Amino acid sequence: MTSTRRQILARTGATALGITFTGAVSELFTGSADAAQRLGHSGYGPLVPDPDGLLDLPRGFRYQVLSREGDQLRSGEGRVPSNHDGMAAFAGRRGRIHLVRNHENRRGAPIAVPAVEGLTYDPTGKGGCTALELDGRNNVLGERVAIAGTAVNCAGGPTPWGTWLTCEETEDRAGTNGYTKDHGFVFEVDGADPHRTGAVPLTAMGRFQHEAVAIDPGTGIVYETEDAFDHPFGLFYRFLPEKPRGGVGSLRAGGALEAMRVPGVPDLSTVQEPGAVFDRVEWVPVPDPLAAQTPIRYQDFGPGGITHAQKLEGCYWGEGHVYFVSSFAHRSAGSAADHFGQVWKYEPGRRRLTLVIVFGPGTDIDLPGESPDNICLAPSGGLMVCEDGGGAQHVYGVTRRGEVYPMARNAQNVGSAEDPEWGEFAGVTFSPDSSTMYVNCYTPGTTFAVTGPWR
């Protein structure tokens, strides 16, 4: 690692996440199996090929297959749906764990989330969530539908009161693609008792192509990212709930939706200097949160406009701040500048926005492909990152010292011998006691529990 790169990373403020990027960080995003083996000296060692051809892990680690696409749900409600995506783990009674898992199903998905009375929003929607109940040894005690009839459930986020907010990454209206109801909403899901939350859209939180959410536990404010597919790109939102103290169902009481404006910055991709700070962030009321006539990102926000960004995805709360990710930006798609990943930090008390790190052309960290997708904080204080790109797919880790290492590789070829293809990882999360890493393979839909000598 060059001294220039160390200087750039030192200025980014990455230590706010409890880690210091001092290793060859660019290797984290190469998508190269060779790179994975070259990084074997750090982390937990090189990956060992799995004789069963499912999941390669470092020596000493083991996996259990908790659930596979197409198997029968233990509830008898139907088959395990396709396209496993975002996920979170919650502590239950008597040492049990509840996993809530998204299914990013569009109309053409092979296996829909089965419709269940009282848990189905739109009978024509194929997306939703399923919930697994595990004992302390990750034995599956139950598996059931948690919400059905939604669409393109990509990511979301946990609430401080132990429920999951699942997000629809679409804004199709009733009558489009065969749907009978409008889509593009957030839904609350209780993995332990789904009928407590039902299938009620949280309409005040906006109708747009949602990606992820994060909640400030002190104020109850919900931050939301929008992963829009076309130009103008998505916005970064905050939702001010009427009942800020929270609790199951509290978000149904409504609230106010606002979008972030950075004065003088209509497109976040133009900010290329790590450590750049904006002290006068503004929050502008969204004219029509339900987007009855016009998608929110096209609406008129008055003088000064609004701030857009391409490919807004991850969003999480930590150290008293909210972090959000722009996975990449391309001029060819309409962005004002190119990059292969930005991580932003917003400090609510100061209304301050900081570019924590930027990857891509024109920087010391020039990445050859798309930046990572789902990420989570590891028990050791580092990060776990799900790769989403070409070639073999990995879960990578970054240690407190900045060492980048391979944690898992999907060994399932879903293509052919002539044209191999490996499904991306998604939904990486840890058990409440930090003893198990749970992660999904998107396709073929598989949920793994990984145990071993975690540090």
From TrEMBL:
InterPro entries membership: PhoX (IPR008557), TAT_signal (IPR006311)
Pfam families with a match to the protein in the record: PhoX
Top-level taxonomic group: Bacteria
Name of protein: DUF839 domain-containing protein
Source organism per UniProt: Streptomyces paludis
